[in-house]
Amino acid sequence: MGNSLSNKFIRKRTSSVIFLSFLLALIILCLCVFVGITFGAKNLDFQTVWKATFHYNNQITAQQIIHELRLPRVIGAAVVGAAFAVAGALIQGITRNPLGDTGVLGINGGSMLIVALCFAFLPNLSYPTLMVFSFIGAILSTLLIFAISVASRGGFTPMKLTVAGAVIAALLHSLTTGVAIYYDLSQDLAFWYAGGVSGVKWPHLSILVPIILVVIGISTCLGKSLSLIAMGDDMAANLGVKTLRVKVIGIILAVILAGVSVSVAGSIGFIGLVIPHIARKIVGTNYYAIIPMSALLGAILLVIADLGARTVDPPRELAIGIMVAFVGVPFFLYIARKIGREL
């Protein structure tokens, strides 16, 4: 009985529709990556891009531009976009909160504050060490947000989590700004505030890509449990889901994704808010499909946003966070209005 009920709930889309959706998203991502590598301050032809990608010759300037600058940048945008999107999907699934997102809930803020403190007191840290500290900051802010939500009158609710996250995010942002001003770090932190992938290099990707791909894979394995939790904790527990364990693992995975992404690309908000909703419209309510689809769509969004940041007003470059906010802010207001009675 339990299995039939869970299978009936999860199968909201036929397998053929889901397969075609994934295939189309993958093709679009590949096209976006190709366009992102080809266009920029200097536009390059297909043959040059192909040779630089698969037959690299470091004696040719055009291939150097692609291999050393654009390729790691575009790959970085794709994996960071995927990471933020999956983190948002996990949080929305765990909390059943349509406003769930690492930026909205203040998780990114903890990473930002720790990065600022590292710049102030430990300026010569290696990237792997900075990533660890960024992850620690994300953990601390997450624990604080959940502690405030649980300790409030009436116990934990998704809306209380959102309010606590917004308050903590504002507090952490103020503290980060204070540290930046006091220690004269405004220029150093400008990149992390606005968000961007222009500084991503191959050594960063050698660490970033394996971590994010493994975490996304583990997150996908939680998909069926998250789908059942969306029906309610009691029903999920009756169907055999260990809800507390799934939620703890899910939050840890979301924090890892946010922490490592902030350490390399800064605080880029709204991806985790917008993308999971779009993924649900495409593949239904099964988180086993929502999570990988969110990864593909998040990668597409950030690759496009990075391309726009580079090409809208050349030779100057806009912050990638601004480009994402053009989509994210109206969507956030739409969702907030939709559930306005609860707010």
CATH overall fold name = ABC transporter involved in vitamin B12 uptake, BtuC
* Architecture (CATH level 2) name: Orthogonal Bundle
> Based on helices, strands and strand pairing, what is the structural class?
mainly alpha
Provide the domain count: 1
Instruction: Please state roughly what percent of the residues sit in beta strands, choosing from under 5%, 5-15%, 15-25%, 25-35%, 35-45% or over 45%.
Output: under 5%
Average pLDDT, rounded to a whole number, is: 84
Q: How many beta strands in the DSSP annotation?
A: 0
Give the helices and strands as they follow along the chain: HHHHHHHHHHHHHHH
What's the CATH H-level superfamily name?
ABC transporter involved in vitamin B12 uptake, BtuC
Identify low-pLDDT runs.
Answer: none
* Sheet with most strands: none
Distance between the termini: 36 Å
Using only C-alpha atoms, the radius of gyration works out to 20 Å
Kindly provide the name of the CATH class. Answer: Mainly Alpha
Helical run tally? 15
- Dominant shape: globular
Range of helix content: over 70%
Membrane topology: Multi-pass membrane protein
Keywords: Cell membrane, Membrane, Transmembrane, Transmembrane helix, Transport
InterPro entries: ABC_BtuC-like, ABC_transptr_permease_BtuC
Family: Belongs to the binding-protein-dependent transport system permease family. FecCD subfamily.
Keywords:
343 residues, mainly alpha, ABC transporter involved in vitamin B12 uptake, BtuC, 0% strand, globular, ABC_BtuC-like, transport
